[in-house]
Amino acid sequence: MGAGAALLAGDPELHAALWSAGWAPTVQRVPAADPDAGEVARTFALVRVLARHVRGAVGRGAFPLVFAGGCLSATGTVAGSGARGAVWLDAHADLDTPEDNVSGFLDVMALSLLTGGCWTAQRRAVEGFTPLAEADVALLGVRDLAPYQAEQVARAATRTASGAYDAEAARGALETLPLPLYLHVDLDVLDVSEGRANHYAAAGGPTLETVLATVDAAFDHGRVAAAALSAYDPTADRDGRILAAARAIARRIADRALEDA
């Protein structure tokens, strides 16, 4: 999925869409971490560098649109942008912690990290990061859950609209979120009828039209400080439909962000 982030960042048609929306896009790549460090150390090193780049972009008056291989990047984007609420579109809840996780996959802890539920020492080392309250997160499209993960969602204070939610449900979930917002679009939130963003894609999700309406709902609610598209694996997107969807989502974010610039 890191290859997908690089592909999106360099995609000429996506850049053309951002130009046509009125932006002059520039690319800042986050360099690879020390390969001799452990997985956790490498991951959080990337998060810390991303936070600095996002902070720098905000300081220049740019709008940070992050292309990330995984969702754990959200902590860096929130730290750098100063977001106080989050709109989180994902087929997966990402509320695991090291204590209950069975897959060994760090990325399914991304929302737990963002809301202060795990990795305390590591998150404290991310400059500018303050965990978001669970109640300040709208979790949309979630559906592909192991039984223990479904229990996590049931216990969480997030404002949740599961599965193939509609635009009205999205607006309802967003109505009390504090500003500014972070808009997180894991591309596997899209129903498989729209294409397969990665090998974790699942049926029962929203359409592209609904995701675009959710982008509008976020900007209608108030200022969006930063956004991200994550978890795109080009090898799963055999017909290119998810790439086309990513371009459309990026263009909609760009259009709406320019209105607030």
Task: Give a description of the structure.
Helix content is 41%, strand content 11%. By secondary structure, the chain is an alpha/beta fold. The chain has a single domain (2-213, 224-260), classed as Ureohydrolase domain (Arginase, Chain A). Strands 1-6-5-2-3-4 form a six-stranded parallel β-sheet, with helices on both faces. Strand 5 (181-186), helix 9 (208-221) and strand 6 (224-230) form a beta-alpha-beta unit. The two termini are 31 Å apart. The mean pLDDT is 96.
Defining key terms:
about 260 residues; alpha/beta; Arginase, Chain A; 6-stranded parallel sheet; globular
The CATH topology label is: Arginase, Chain A
Poorly predicted regions are: none
CATH class: Alpha Beta
Number of contiguous helices:
10
Structural class: alpha/beta
In short:
This protein has 261 residues and is an alpha/beta fold.
Task: Give me the secondary-structure topology.
Layout: H1 2-10, H2 12-20, H3 39-59, E1 65-68, H4 74-81, E2 85-89, H5 110-114, H6 120-124, E3 137-140, H7 147-155, E4 159-161, H8 167-174, E5 181-186, H9 208-221, E6 224-230, H10 241-260
Parallel strand pairs: 1-6, 2-3, 2-5, 3-4, 5-6
